[in-house]
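Data availability (excerpt). The following record was deposited with the supplementary files.
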Amino acid sequence: MRADYPLYIVAIICFIVAGYGYAYPFTEPSTNFLLVVTLTILGVIFAGTGYAFREKETKVVTAKPSPPPKVEAPPPPPPPPEVEKKEEPSEPPPMETVEEKPSEETVAPSETPSTKPPSTRRRRKKTA
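Predicted structure:
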């Protein structure tokens, strides 16, 4: 049994007797007052002693689990075989150019938009 429980019980008994003596005096008033104060002080002392003897909460410290063993990774796969590269011609084929005729008016294209309908404009041919 824990040691603090009997001390709490004695403290409670002291408080009960002190309360009874205060409510129903059984001696002279001065002696009764001394009895009530003494029992109250004894009750406080027993309660404090019981509190000092109570079981303290103990913290259980557990060891940290060890890390899992390191597993060696398999070696990387060998690089794929090299594919023969086809040689590309060093010079690209010449592009066909379309000669444009100079217009009679010399106006910068950013100043005014073209007044010709879109169907009459010349476009460059795309080369395949």
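Summary of structural features: The CA atoms of residues 6 and 50 lie 8 Å apart.
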